[in-house]
Automatic annotation (TrEMBL):
Compositionally biased spans, kind Polar residues: 85-96
GO annotation, cellular component aspect: nucleus
Coiled coil segments of this chain: none
Entry cofactors: Mg(2+); Mn(2+)
Region: Disordered, residue numbers: 69-96
Enzyme Commission code(s) on record: 3.1.-.-
Subcellular location: Nucleus
A Pfam family matched in the record: Exo_endo_phos
Stated name of the protein: DNA-(apurinic or apyrimidinic site) endonuclease
Site (Interaction with DNA substrate): 353
Annotated Basic and acidic residues bias: 69-81
Amino acid sequence: MRGEYFPHAGDTHHLCLGRSRRDLHCFFVPNFAGFFSKVVTTIALTVRTAVSRCRGALYLPVMPKRKAAGDAKESPKKTKAEVGATSSKSDFSSNAKTKSGKHWNLKIASWNVDGLRGTVKKNGHAYIPQEDPDIICLQETKCTEKDVPKEFTGAVEGYHGYWYSPTEKKGYAGTALLSKTKPIKVTYGIGVDEHDDEGRVITAEFDDFYMVTAYVPNAGRGLVRLDYRGTWDEAFTAYLKKLDKKKPVVLCGDLNVAHNEIDLKNPKSNKNKTPGFTDKEREGFTTLLDEGFKDSYRELYPEETDCYTFWSYMGGARAKNVGWRLDYFVLSDRLMPHLCDNVIRSEVMGSDHCPIVLLLAMGK
């Protein structure tokens, strides 16, 4: 039988017999002297033995063990920051190659940090030097360049940094692009005033490709911005097509769409009800792919399930892996021979999104 002890104010021993807390028969024995204490202990042991074969439960005190003088102290509970740092200590090495056997030589990381300052408080910035990407793109930074925490600046020492924040809304949206190699040119926005006031797109031109990082607008609670999202998708696709005529494009970021049912845990309950899984948003992404681009992850892993990059903070969604794949590397068709791998770093904490990593073999 299982034994428990229910403390009672003023009592040293509180022996209870019964099947539940609603059906208890209790005996209170005050601690008058050592003799009586021994008697109570003897009775308790006798009763426990006698009742052990009976249906019901016996509740007896469980005394804490005394620590020896040399015993180590109990380890303190970890802070959220320490947990985040521990979770991000992983082996990020890779032997990935192209289909033709070329080893990767360019690593690009992308991460919606859901507020850079908050991610730093959780020690999420420790991930960057561990991953050591050649280019890292951030979305939803929610801060201007002058507000970037010094801890993050130290983590990206040696990178050329470019920041884009909303013109009016402080602490909202925002993107950043950091590169070990200085780009030929960097531009901000997509050249359409209607879409360029929220700090959503940065484009960096390199010798062999354009690097575009984007934080695509969410359709909003109640889908109040769904029409605007459709307008955005059309303009953004036109912008990428224009770039693609000059050089191939690597697009990364939080594109705020789960393209197919395989890309979220609960497609039926979210279809046309939740931002990111409406027919309009999904069709917009399909249109982009039809214009000469590829979803690199699905090209490599077309049938892989339960692979998500975003989890709600509510309901323990991340622990249960009830998530969405909202973060992508989209490549111009002619970059596909250079593709080695696309990795989801689901073990890295610090945001409600996790980083994703693209490995390419560039050059001849």
